[in-house]
Design a protein that fits this description.
By secondary structure, the protein is mainly beta. The chain is 0% helix and 34% strand. The protein has strands at residues 3-5, 12-14, 24-26, 33-39, 42-46. A 3-stranded antiparallel sheet has the order 3-4-5, with no helix packed on it. Strands 1-2 form a two-stranded antiparallel sheet. Strand 4 and strand 5 form a beta hairpin. It is elongated and about 55 Å long. The mean pLDDT is 89. The structure holds zinc ion. Residues 6, 8-9, 11, 27, 29-30, 32 line the site of zinc ion.
Length: 61
């Protein structure tokens, strides 16, 4: 089973062998949601959980 490193807390994060890029895993140490961005070696990126509201649509005056 491949192991990645949590960018948040440097803990080992186990990734399923059939995991594909773009899948999400959770760090068991800190609970951060991580996206698989690489598989050989396993690379993990923190998923920002900010709500993408409609803020992008700023009012046009
Ligand atoms: Zn972590």
């Amino acid at each position: 089973m491949p192991i990645g490193t949590c960018p948040e807390c440097d803990a080992d994060v186990h990734v399923d062998t059939d995991t594909d890029k773009g899948e999400l895993v959770s760090c068991e140490e800190c609970g951060t949601d991580l996206e698989v961005v690489g598989l050989d070696p396993v690379q993990l990126d923190i998923v920002e959980e900010d709500d993408l509201d409609d803020d992008e649509d700023e009012d046009e005056f």
